[in-house]
Structure formats: C-alpha cells, structure tokens
Known about the structure:
globular; 16% helix; alpha+beta; single chain; Nucleoside Triphosphate Pyrophosphohydrolase
Amino acid sequence: MFKYTLAFLLHKNKALVINRNKSPWMGSWNGLGGKIKQGETPLVSVHREVLEETGLNLDIEKFIFKGCVTWNVFTADGQGLYIYIYHLDDDFIFNTPIKVEEGILDFKDISWLSNYDNEGVAKNIPYFLDKVINDPKTYEFECIFDKKLLIKVNVKEGTPCLNLS
C-alpha cells in the first residue's frame, strides 16, 4: 500500500489546489492530500486530509478513485499515491484565495493546471490531470525522474498499483 493520497476538488472548469509551503513541491500548485495514517484506507485518508486542509467536511461517498501515481526517486517515502476527484455542486461557494497552515488554497482553471509549459504546478500534474478528470477509466501514472527533473511518464490503463493489503 502506498503512503499518500491526492485529491482534486472540481468546480465547473476549475480545481481547488494548494500552493505548498513545504517539500515536496514547495512553492508549486498541487492537489490536496497527504499521508495515510495507520489503520486508514486511502479513501478515509483523502477525506480526512481534505477536511484538515480546507475545513470542508465533504461526503466521503462522492470521492471517485481515479488511479495511482508512482515515482522512482524523491524525498517522500512511499513511492506512490492514490488519486481521487470530487465534483463539487454548481452552487458551491468557497471564497479563495485563502491562507492555510500548509499553504494557499485557490481555484485554478483546469486548462492552466494541465499546461505542460506551466512552471507553477507540480511537474507531473499536466501528465495526468486531464485523463483523471475526463476519462472514466482508472490509470497508473509511472513518473520517471532524474533527480528532480521529470524525464517521462508511463501510463497504464487500469490500476495494477491498487493493492490495499
């Protein structure tokens, strides 16, 4: 089992993301999430992390599992994470930007987050976000880094990474 979760809360053509204060991805926009605590499932963890980071107590049943992201190097333990999306209601209101303990929360256009030329987002997000949001299938995204430089992302349909034991 991986040690991390990542969620993108979707509202119309935007996603709620955080500009992180700490590594990994310090100073970069990224999804919400964090470390899975002992005894938690990835779903329970992502729900808790979203609540802790945003104050939003969302319906746990509406989180949609979309796959996994793995990596070959990094300072973060675990070498992988579980990705979720959550569709917020059209009439949902959450005023941003807002400073929180872990960084700055804001809604960003999905097209902006998915742009390969965007230096302001975690480097692997443009390689998976569009598929995660728009494709009903699940995927494993294997990120190959040379130190902190993303070299390539291998995409596998399905979730061979999904081993919750």
